[in-house]
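haha ok so turns out i had the wrong file open the whole time. this is the CORRECT one, sorry everyone. sequence first:
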Amino acid sequence: MDSFYRAFEDRYRGSRELIKSRLAKYVPFFQPLASLYPGAKTFDLGCGRGEWLELMSEAGFAPTGADLDADMLEACRERNLPAIQGDAIEHLASLESSSCALISAFHVVEHVSFEQIRRIVGEALRVLLPGGLLILETPNPENLAVATSNFFLDPSHQKPIPALLLSFVAEHAGFDRVKVVRLQESPELRNAAAQIHLLDVVGGASPDYAIVAQKDADSTQGAFDDAFAANYGLTLAALASRYDAKLESSVAQLGARILPMGDRLQSVEGRLGIAEGRLQLAEGRLQLAEERFQFADEQRARSERLLQDMESRALRAEDLARQASTQVVEEQLHHAEDRYQLLEAQLERTEAMLRDAEARVQQANAHLQAVYRSTSWHVTAPMRWVSLGLRGKALAPARQAVKSTLQSGARYASSRPWLRQLAVTVLNRMPRAKARLVPIVAASMFTQPVDTNIGSIRVEDLDEHANRIHATLIAEFDRSQREKN
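then structure:
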């Protein structure tokens, strides 16, 4: 076998110390036996880890145990306890009659068949000395939690064995007296005055019990009477009776409390009527509040619709504003484009006028260069220097006097045709002097352009050099007129 059952025992049965403390409950039974048969042999069926063997050795017996599980026996060997591996029932049957003071089997009978239980009891009666004891411990089915649940936790268990059945088997086999010893109940429940609850009735009875059977009880001369006369543990019936008594007491107390409550009940009924009236009033107010709430909800829905309508109108207004703004911008853009085109046209005209003025300037420069290159320009150079001198600021009075004299002479010559013709003939021979004097004379004598025909001389009859002088005089005349204006 593997170590499963030993591990199972360690977890669910308890430690060695706990098991030894529980087995000490049997001291009132085996202590007188140790005095009666000091050093006598004992045999334990299914000795397991050897807690009972150790207790028997401490009491002065010579114990032997047997078990099928080698792993459980290893715990016995570790403590030098006498134990053998094998079938415990067969080993019991092999023992000599009247050879042992005590035969025990702790939590064994629930693992075997009923016929094997009867064989254990019969062989024990044969092997025991007079006054010897048989102890058979097993789970107690009076404990409802054990009978319905905890018993089946061990997979090797076959079925629970009621205490009445097991004790009858011992009596029927021939034991003089049999005692049922109930074990391992809660210490709190042993106190009869302790409060008890329904759960205590279900699981509070002693979870284990044992039968202690004695062979030839009369031969012991009353040494075991006290042990067999005592009561052990808690029965299901005792717990149920205590629970019923508690219920009856509770009901009686409740009845005593209910009787004085009649007047209070009437008062409560009156208050209840008032409360009902208030409740009706509250219901009326609640209905009114619901109607107001419904009206408010309708108003809210109407407000939401108005808000949605206003939002849609606002959106349309924004669209119209955007459209109107776009039209204004487009109109301003068209107006700006028209002004731009107008400015471009004005610029083109200005550029054309500028080009025309530049052409005129170039033409005037060409004429001026032609004058500068002419023979008349070089011949009249001395007179120009004189003129430039007369133009100086220091000679301004003299220049004005000369100019006045020339203008007076010109008017005088103009009134006499022969003198005018003579002056023209002389000036024709001095082109440069003519170019300087003609503007001065013309400015004082004429209010309109000078006639191109002087006397009997025609412009068409002039040569090329004379024509250039004539053009120069005309240009100077035009300039003097502009300065005058």
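The two ends are 151 Å apart (CA to CA).
again sry for the mixup
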